[in-house]
């Protein structure tokens, strides 16, 4: 069951009162055609990925070595972890790590994407360093969190008297950064993150591919999905291009004050795609300056939600709160597991309607019900439909949303590839941790902290 579909019906009139109409969309036909052609011409790094074998082959070369470990631990953050997590959860059983090796067949996967000591320690408690491979992922090789966790892991490996070469694999920029230098000095294996592909666009590079392969995910089919989606998203005809149409829909609603984009997955396995999307949409589009250097302060806030769980937490707000949200449902048609609700208590009508039906039928009925209610309340919503969670469909999703984000960036006239807004925080962290070269910044931060008006109760 290959190929995701996009259902845009509920963003349009008459389904939604005051919704978009086709004429409004058609006015952008030429603009979108130009944007699509411009992106093809600019050829951003991620765009040609599905047509190159180099990263897949390099990762496949390491297959036997990587799969010989009992555990593979990813140490990275942001774009160097979110895609990995989304892939693991979508494509492996949710209880993958606790399955016996005979059933799992491939190593346990841990993704340590924070420096909270409780979190790091509880992950490390579960591994035996002698049978663990640490995949340190950092494009820049400077991110404090990834580097701190590398040092922690390195300390453990050394304390066991193990050879770092046999327990570390660095995924990093081939031309810069301290990881590259250490790897060269010590003969540690490396995988390249192409210099021209930013972290949040890197899931289909060795960043996401290695841990996916380690756990037995078919990375070639992941690429096949991306490749087939490439055909669709590079089509300059707006009505045949789901990524461009989705970007335009979000843009037009954003212009009307819809500042929030909710991605609500009706599947625990698809839920972390929404996490991956949050970074992509937020870091790419939340910008102070436009391409002409003017202050614009644009961006649409991405929110993730889980159905049905968040029906009992968020949906009241989505239905009756401000008209500021466009909602994307992720629907799964066929689940890997099936549970039929037993027919018990047939004499109680409150329960008897459930007996004999499957949980997935109930889940998708609840999705249809939420969709109906939102539409009834004139809240724009759309749906990405996954016939199944397989590598092909997940590859399609990643690729489509990467392209969509760039189209949205062009519509907003900003640069979707940089993230200057996170730099100051990174530098102040270095200063506060007494990194050499950051003394002046540290003084400024201290001065500001001392002179600041305090309101602490
Ligand atoms: O891979 P790196 O260089 O460690 O960066 C991790 C993340 O940090 C950021 O640079 C800023 O949050 C992201 O863009 C990136 O994905």
List keywords for this structure.
single chain, 457 residues, alpha/beta, Rossmann fold, 5-stranded mixed sheet, 5-stranded parallel sheet, 21 helices, 47% helix, globular, binds 6-O-phosphono-beta-D-fructofuranose
Largest sheet: 5 strands, mixed
Please report the first level of CATH classification, the CATH class of the largest domain: Alpha Beta
Helix content: 40-55%
Shape: globular
Structural class: alpha/beta
CATH topology of the largest domain: Rossmann fold
CATH architecture of the largest domain: 3-Layer(aba) Sandwich
> CATH superfamily of the largest domain, called what?
Glucose-6-phosphate isomerase like protein, domain 1
CA radius of gyration is 23 Å
- In percent terms, what proportion of residues is strand? 5-15%
Report what the structure shows.
The structure is a single chain. The protein has two domains: 5-41 and 222-412, Rossmann fold (3-Layer(aba) Sandwich); 68-215, 3-Layer(aba) Sandwich (Rossmann fold), CATH 3.40.50. 47% of the residues lie in helices and 14% in strands. The protein has 21 helices and twelve strands. It is globular. 6-O-phosphono-beta-D-fructofuranose binds next to loops.
Short description:
This protein has 457 residues and is α/β, with parallel strands linked by helices. The chain contains 21 helices and twelve strands. Bound molecules: 6-O-phosphono-beta-D-fructofuranose.
Which helices and strands occur, and which strands form pairs?
Elements: E1 5-7, H1 22-26, H2 29-42, H3 45-48, H4 54-61, H5 63-67, E2 71-75, H6 82-91, H7 101-104, E3 108-112, H8 117-124, E4 132-138, H9 144-159, H10 164-167, E5 168-172, H11 178-186, E6 189-192, H12 206-214, H13 219-233, H14 242-255, E7 260-266, H15 271-285, E8 287-289, E9 295-298, E10 301-306, H16 315-320, E11 325-332, H17 349-352, H18 359-376, E12 381-386, H19 391-412, H20 423-432, H21 439-451
Parallel strand pairs: 2-3, 2-4, 4-5, 5-6, 7-10, 7-11, 11-12
Antiparallel strand pairs: 1-12, 8-9
Helix pairs in contact: 2-19, 4-12, 6-12, 6-15, 13-19, 14-19, 15-19, 20-21
The structure holds 6-O-phosphono-beta-D-fructofuranose.
6-O-phosphono-beta-D-fructofuranose binds next to loops.
């Amino acid at each position: 069951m290959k190929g995701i579909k996009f259902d845009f019906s509920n963003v349009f009139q008459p389904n939604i009162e005051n919704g978009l109409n086709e004429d409004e969309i058609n006015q952008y036909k030429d603009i979108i055609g130009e944007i699509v052609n411009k992106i093809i011409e600019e050829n951003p790094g991620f765009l040609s990925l599905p047509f190159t074998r180099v990263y897949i082959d390099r990762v496949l070369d390491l297959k036997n070595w990587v799969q010989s470990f009992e555990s593979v631990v990813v140490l990275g953050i942001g774009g160097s972890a979110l895609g990995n997590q989304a892939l693991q959860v979508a494509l492996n059983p949710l209880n993958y790590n606790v399955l016996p090796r005979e059933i799992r067949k491939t190593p346990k996967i841990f993704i340590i994407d924070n420096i909270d000591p409780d979190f790091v320690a509880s992950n490390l408690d579960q591994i035996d360093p002698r049978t663990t491979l640490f995949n340190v992922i950092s494009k820049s090789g400077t991110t404090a969190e990834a580097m701190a966790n590398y040092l922690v892991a390195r300390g453990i490996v050394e304390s066991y008297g193990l050879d770092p070469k046999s327990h570390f694999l660095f995924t990093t920029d081939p031309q810069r950064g301290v990881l590259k230098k250490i790897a060269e000095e010590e003969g540690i294996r490396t995988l390249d993150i192409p210099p021209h592909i930013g972290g949040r666009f890197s899931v289909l590079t060795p960043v996401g591919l290695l841990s996916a392969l380690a756990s037995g995910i078919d990375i070639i089919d992941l690429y096949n999905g991306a490749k087939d989606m490439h055909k669709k998203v590079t089509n300059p005809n707006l009505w045949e291009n789901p990524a461009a149409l989705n970007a335009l829909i979000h843009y037009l609603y954003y212009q009307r004050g819809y500042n929030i984009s909710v991605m609500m997955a009706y599947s625990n396995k698809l839920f972390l795609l929404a996490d991956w999307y949050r970074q992509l949409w937020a870091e790419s589009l939340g910008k102070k300056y436009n391409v002409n250097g003017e202050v614009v302060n644009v961006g649409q806030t991405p929110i993730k939600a889980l159905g049905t769980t968040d029906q009992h937490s968020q949906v009241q707000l989505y239905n009756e709160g401000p008209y500021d949200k466009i909602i994307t449902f992720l629907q799964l048609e066929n689940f890997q597991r099936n549970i039929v609700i037993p027919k018990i208590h047939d004499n109680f009508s409150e329960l008897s309607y459930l007996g004999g039906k499957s949980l997935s039928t109930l889940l998708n009925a609840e999705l249809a019900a939420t969709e109906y209610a939102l539409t009834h309340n004139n809240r724009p919503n759309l749906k990405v439909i996954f016939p199944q969670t397989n590598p092909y469909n997940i590859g399609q999703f990643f690729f489509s949303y990467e392209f969509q984000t760039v189209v949205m960036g062009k519509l907003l006239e900003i640069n979707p590839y940089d993230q200057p807004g996170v730099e100051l925080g990174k530098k102040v962290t270095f200063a506060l941790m007494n990194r050499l070269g950051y003394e002046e910044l540290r003084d400024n931060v201290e001065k500001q902290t001392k002179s600041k008006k305090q309101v602490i109760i």
